[in-house]
Design a protein that fits this description.
With 66 residues, this protein is mainly α. The chain has one domain: 434 Repressor (Amino-terminal Domain), CATH 1.10.260. 58% of the residues lie in helices and 6% in strands. The protein has a two-stranded antiparallel sheet. Helix 2 packs across helix 3. The mean pLDDT is 96. Keywords: DNA-binding.
Length: 66
């Protein structure tokens, strides 16, 4: 699964730390999600999408091989 978190953060001009604090996780968790090393839980994915005021499908993109 790909994600657009880094792009969304850049558009909103926020750091990984700021996003992490807003959704209640560590900065390392955001780093791991951005690098596709960790798949977020459904509640966390929804929190991230809500933070950016976007549908979850526009932040997290399911690929054919997922």
């Amino acid at each position: 699964m790909k994600n657009r978190i880094k792009v969304e953060r850049a558009e909103k001009d926020i750091t990984q730390q700021q996003l992490a604090e807003a959704v209640g996780v560590s900065r390392q968790t955001i780093v791991a999600i951005e690098k596709n090393r960790f798949l977020p839980s459904t509640p966390l994915a929804l929190k991230i999408a809500r933070y950016f005021s976007k549908p979850v499908e526009s932040i997290f993109i399911l690929e054919d091989n997922d």
